[in-house]
Amino acid sequence: MSGGLPGIAIGLLDELSALDESTDALVHLALTAPSRSGFLELDFGLIRLLESATERPLSATERARILARLAREQLSDPSSGARRRELIDEALGLARASGDPGPIAEVLDSRLHALWNPIAAQERLSCGSEIVDQARRAGDDQLELRGLFWRFTALAELGDLDSAQAALTAYGRAAELAGNAEAAVVVTSRRAMLAVVRGRFDEAATLTAEVAVRGRQMGLSDTDSLVGTLRYSVFALRGDGADVVEPLREQARRRPGHFFEAGVAWALAEAGRDVEAGLELDRLLPAVLNGSGPRWLGAVADLAHVASRVGDQDQAETLYQVLLPYQGRLVVWGGANTITGTVDEQLGGLAARLGRTSAAVDHLTSAIELQQRIGALPWLAHTLPVRARALSARGRDGDAAAARADLERARSTAQRLGLTRVLKHLKPTDNEWRLTRDGDTWLLEAGGESARLRDGRGLHYLRALLSAPGQEIAALDLVAGGSGIRVPDGDPVLDETARKVFQRHLQSIDEQLESADRAGDQDRAAALHHERAAVLSELRSATGVGGGSRRVTTETERARVNATRTLWATVERVEVLAPLAGAHLRASLRTGRYLRYAAAPGGPARWNT
User: Fold this and answer.
1) Would the pTM count as exceeding 0.90?
2) Residue 500 pLDDT exceeds 50
3) Cβ atoms within 10 Å of 435's Cβ, excluding its own
4) DSSP letters of 393-422?
């Protein structure tokens, strides 16, 4: 129990020496010894001590408290769910039967830890209030603090950050009166997280430094984890994910079963490593769907972010249905040491991936309204471009103007907050459209949208066309990657027999026209004129300059088919990631034996390539 530290061991010895002879020293230690492990880490020594204590003769309240603590200490073991529920149910029954408010409050607190149910935020709020009431009846300041903290956490989950901040202030004052220095560090760390949420990054940095100093001075086991979480939260809003992949992987190796890998998947997606992110999604999704605990909702939100970018339809649909009961909530991890966004933003991204553009707009609008209400400006800057894409894809009257307004507001907010991650995806301005090679990928920047695309032939074709606006490029040249290709003449499209058939048909139409004119049959004459024009059009398309038969080679036709198919497949990829740019390309590209980019209204005459 001393963690190998002689000072602690000596203190424990003095404590035990002072006990009354009637007091069981082992039971006393089981009830009072602090855990020496960090959050979601097992303290095997304490667990063994608690297991041993359950075998001693105990009063009802002693047994209730020990069983509850044993259940709580096993939260770090994802496989112990059934055992935890069995222990807590017995403990709560014993505590309530005793009528003693102290044990009731203590068991309720342990129950919220041991049986952390992601959906039960409202239950956490009401249970926290009961813990406060019972603790005050018992005159237990420390238990009252725990109840106040549960209220803070639940209010944060429910998206009421103003009330949550008030609850945190009450918790801090109560901690000060109780002389609880550890609680003061907790308050500082949560204030830092709220500062991050609202984009007060300088304030968050100052508070984080204070957590580091005070936590280490006190020997708090969670200090490094708290500090790392706060710094990671800032980076998640301002960075690109690449630098946190390996640190998150290390966390996953140290704490298996608690879904740290979901953060790895998120970071890979943000770093543009879509294939690796997709593999992590494939590996993790079954385990997360069957999981629970204080990190569960955050892990689902991270996977939803990945699925909205690289997931298949089944994955997106599954995650959408899983998250739907949590709409209107914030993504809160554990005891609100991390708050990473709104559930509705993830629902909006998944709906867009599923092609449900109206639902996507509705979810994203709800997310933005909540973000505005709580002053979460960094989240707002991230969500506005997502809604802009959804509005562009929906295409109702006024959607294009609303999308442009969202992009401008996102750009302005990101510039003021220094959110380089957002600005990178918002560059360039509406008048600067680019398609550029960036290593093994291509970066498309158009009309305030940004998309990263894997290399492929279609992107090479697209760049060639965008580099020569208004000019026709032969499909053969495009496919070959150059010009000057010479292919032998092919067979004529029309042979001599077919030409004679066309001529006889035209002669027949002319004779019928003459007859209709003589009879004054205007309707018949108009129909024959249309028929004659159609035949002539077909004849012209099959003849070359001077009326000779146009010749088509097998190579020409194959190039036309391949270039057309490949180019439109690329445009479809763009439409998914950058709907405005995709719609413009679809309206501006001409395909066939000759291909051309002719800018449609609303787009640039020339791209930077």
Assistant:
1) no
2) yes
3) 22
4) HH--TTHHHHHHHHHHHHHHHHHHHT-HHH
